[in-house]
Amino acid sequence: MAASPWALTAGILGNIISFLVFLAPISTFYRIYKKKSTEGFQAVPYIVALFSAMLWLYYAFIKTNETILIIINSIGCVVEAIYIAVFLAYAHRKARVHAAKVILFLDVGIFSSIVLSTIIFSKGDTRVTVVGWICVGFAVSVFVAPLSIMKLVIKTKSVEFMPFFLSFFLTLSAVAWFFYGLLIKDIYVMLPNVLGLLFGLAQMLLYAIYRKPRRADESDTDESLKKTKKVASIGDERKAGSGEWTMTVKESNEDDTSIPI
């Protein structure tokens, strides 16, 4: 059944916004390329993002007539694979081995197990239902990321770790994908983006509360920042059609607050 004009509009808007979000880490990987070093950045957010795109791509293929989801998640798979390849090219041996293990476990092992088990033990609408709920479950399971970011913002009373425009566009993405799921009556696309929208609005609220710069002599924030020392590597992604987020934070004593998103 063809999508309605409104559903098509929402899907195209979701594709455009999600594409821009996929491209957000380009500056980070250009920096890695220029310096020939990953500088402590982690590959896990991008490995998880690749897994998410692969899951939704599989879901879109078995559901059929889901060109909107196929397009954006195909792009997502390619983009995330490029990011991971750049990371592996310039990471030191220990980080490269760790990333390779995660890739083999998640993107190869777990994904292959899901595909094979659903092909063998289910078919037709049952397979779509099973894979759909797997996608929803995975999306919900990684919602701890924005919670961690929001906790850090509240603790430090600083939005340094939560770029406004990223949060804004991710919220717009959740809105677009929610309405796309609603209009095509796809609960698996709709549900994760309800949570994505709620978390996005919560982040907007936190930004409104803490957006004003604090005075340099306000020692409470300084002391809080010293205690956390978690500034160097935050990976934050919400994937098309899933509304999911991923985040890693590494301990650092440096002032580098670059955000690979």
Please, could you describe this protein's structure?
The protein is mainly α and 261 residues long. It has one domain (5-214, 222-228). Helices cover 72% and strands 0% of the residues. Helix 3 packs parallel to helix 5 and helix 8 (164-183) packs antiparallel against helix 9 (187-210). The model is unreliable at 224-238 and 243-261 (pLDDT under 50).
Give a nutshell description of this structure.
72% of the residues lie in helices and 0% in strands. The protein is built from 10 helices and no strands.
Report Rg.
Answer: 19 Å
Distance between the termini: 36 Å
Determine the structural class based on helices, strands and strand pairing: mainly alpha
Total DSSP E strands: 0
Mean pLDDT: 81
| Low-pLDDT segments | 224-238, 243-261
Overview features:
261 residues; 72% helix; single chain; mainly alpha; 10 helices; globular
Which secondary structure elements does this structure contain, and how are they paired or packed?
Layout lengths: L4 H19 L2 H10 L8 H20 L3 H24 L2 H29 L2 H18 L2 H13 L7 H20 L3 H24 L8 H10 L33
Helix pairs in contact: 1-4, 1-8, 2-4, 3-4, 3-5, 3-6, 4-5, 6-9, 7-9, 8-9
